Amino acid sequence: MRHLAIYDMDKTITREATWTRFLIASARRRAPWRLALYPIAGVAALGYLLKLTDRAGLKRFTQRLMLGRALTPAEMEAIAEGFADAELEHGVLHGARERIAADRAAGYTLVMATASHGYYAAAIARRLGFDAVVATQAKRDGQGRILSDLEGDNCYGPAKLRMTLDWMRGAGIARGDTHIRAYSDHVSDAPLLDWADEGFAVNAHGPLKALAGEKGWPELDWR
Asked: C-alpha angle with apex 198: 194 to 203, nearest 5 degrees?
């Protein structure tokens, strides 16, 4: 029997959501003048709250606003690696580190499944010893430059479970032969937690706390 431990990232492994901080850190490093545009991102976020756009649309807009139309792979790698170094130093929860280490010691394959963009989530996951990453992916142009548009789905909600299943098929991992743990802080990951053999509500917000009580999912606090 194979064992998988699937972890959400933002507010499960990390203290805070990472996207806004990634954009600010990247703009500061690459084009500091773009920091003056950040209030526009706040207006866009209000549009999301008013359901005028979805999460994918908000990601597209804010990346274009703060990072520009396209970045070369080398430019994105430098930004992502720098951000991952800072996140590992200041942003990763001690309780998450302990649980990741315990699952690794118990023989679990570690998978990060996150709505965050793969270009920086993978850098964080690598530093934490994860074996695989399922994440939102960015489109590339004909020159290989990374664009603000998405390649496929935003890895959020039911799409995260679909993308995890796609990864398992690609890796030759059969669900029936695998024991799966899943960890998340947010009710949007209910499909993933319900599908897992063991679902854990970690640092849970109110709606997930309520659902965890109904479903019998153990609650963990890594903050």
From this structure: 85
48-58 burial by CB neighbour count: b if 16+ within 10 A, else e?
Answer: beeeebeebeb
Domain range summary for the chain, segments of one domain joined by +: 2-220
d(CA 16, CA 92): 9
Q: What is the pLDDT of residues 12-32, one digit of tens each?
A: 999 999 999 999 999 999 999
**DSSP, res 14:** B
* Helix, strand, coil fractions of the chain, as percent rounded to 5: 55, 20, 25
Instruction: Tell me which fold the domain 2-220 belongs to.
Output: Rossmann fold (3.40.50)
Beta strand 70-71 with 146-150: parallel, antiparallel or unpaired?
Answer: antiparallel
